[in-house]
Task: structure prediction
Amino acid sequence: MTEWQRLSPRMLLVHPVHEVLNQLPLLVGAIVLGSATQNPVWSLVGVGVIVMLGLARWFTTSYRIDDRDIMLRTGLLQRNELSVPRNRIRSVQTEARLLHRLLGLTVLRVSTGQEAKGDNAFELDAVRSDQVAGLRAVLLGEQRDDAPEGAPLASWEPSWLRYSPLSVSGLLMIGAAVGVAYQAGFGDALRDWVLVFGGPWLVVGAVLAGVVLAVARSLLTYGNLALTRRADTLNLVHGLLKIREHTYDLRRLRGGTLREPLLVRALGGARLDAVMTGVAGVGESSLLLPACPAATAQRVLVDLVGESGVVGGALVAHGPVAARRRWVRALVVPVVLAVVLPFAAVPGWVWALWAAFTVACVFLAIDRVRALGHRVDGRWLVTRAGSVERRRDCVQTAGIIGWTVRQTWFQRRAGVATLVAATAAGTKRYVLIDVPAEMAWTVAATASPWVADSVWCA
Amino acid sequence: MGAPVLMAEPAYPPSRSAPLVWALGAAIPWLAVALGQIVWFVLDGRMPWLHAGLAAATMVGALVSVVVAPIWRYRVHRWEISPQAVFTRSGWLVQERRIAPISRVQTVDTYRGPLDRLFGLANVTVTTASSAGAVRIVALDAAVADQVVAQLTDIAALGGHDAT
Result:
């Protein structure tokens, strides 16, 4: 495969359609111009140019895979040539939108250690779906023949949908829709609705609609999810309409993060993210499992890291000073309000709100104190923190390439420090909050022999 | 875990002229702020209490960043390079100790701003594969910085593994 190749000719059908959708403003302009000048030629020229642009994309895009690099040439007027060394490929991702699926096409995306954005992303849009398995094997350097159909680690169940109403995405979508409606001048209509239906009912309706939207979105995005482990890759497929497939190079796996947002945790759920070099540690790209039963997420993580103590074992607490600092932070706002509010002569219901807020803050403090902890040995660093967004990060110590001990003025007086482990994987920094100062370097030295053996370590 | 591990501090301070350069660097923006206030006062002298308050705030801010911070930073800043690792201490209100193994070093950069050049200083940044792991050794004498860069690139060339 050392000669230049084109994408699938079927893209000659897809590109014009996508181009029309992308250039919608231009198209609207052309049609408006056409009708304003009573001359339909303008509209036709507009459509024609856009379709030609779409066709030109196919003719100007080609790719090549040789022994050392993969290369992608794009661009009509501005020629771009992107070259990626094959040994830098960390993961291969595929995606099939509806139109692509109808034509049997798949978009293939290659990600490297660098965070590729926009122009620098290596994306083949699109190749025939039956080529994907071969391309993926070539790109990730697998031996295709002896790669067995690995054991499934986890597969999606409809019951996972019970966690999705608890995400805020549905409510955010409603909020955005209301905002757009106001911007578009439908504010008066909204106000009429409030008068007709009554405010509370509208709120209930909005929340219900939010729940339905969130569940639907979760179903479409994660339906049919299957996580499979092969010899040295991890394969994730999900989606009902738009099927996404992500293949991770297991040799680059440095651990995993169990994320338990408060509301998901309340129903016994958790999400699982990969800590992997070349894969951003946040958002969709590192996701292994969406909100699912915590036992499932833990079982999968144990299978990946190979030690159950790392995933479920007890943690070393950070001690009374760390606990005191959590309490101070949680209660600062209620106390300040308690001092300020009497001067403002506020009505009684404000004080009721204040009381509820204070109780919530107390629970927040208790939960955050309970969460805070770490666990370290020669192979794994585990750190857990947070209440609303609780996370347990499990990071392989072999991947830690830097330690920072950070102390603010207050932390120095209190005798605690923030310890940051730097790695090339995931979110790049894994933080242990408010460790007793004398313990900070002990943790670092336990995890990293190069710290323990350094000339500064007595 | 055994007995608590104690880390010795890194040995070497930055250049003797570091506090002066930091003070000058901080003085320039504060001078601009002070000039702006004087111009405003000359053009519009109403509300003298406002002018007095702002002047006092400027004085305090300038005093802290031109006098206190450079001296404090000079007392905190330390660096040292061993054959295995590079270790620094930096900051003043917020202090940081950072260590990175030299075998994982990817690049060694030298930066010299206009003030640094005037006083013959240089800043060395050692990056690893982690964006959270870059170690900065600031305000070194240029000759020392050259030596540091040579030493780091020498040792780093021996190892070949960047843990990505």
Remarks:
- Chain A is about 45% helix and 30% strand.
- Residues 320-361 of chain A form one domain.
- The mean pLDDT of chain A is 85.
- The two ends of chain A are 57 Å apart (CA to CA).
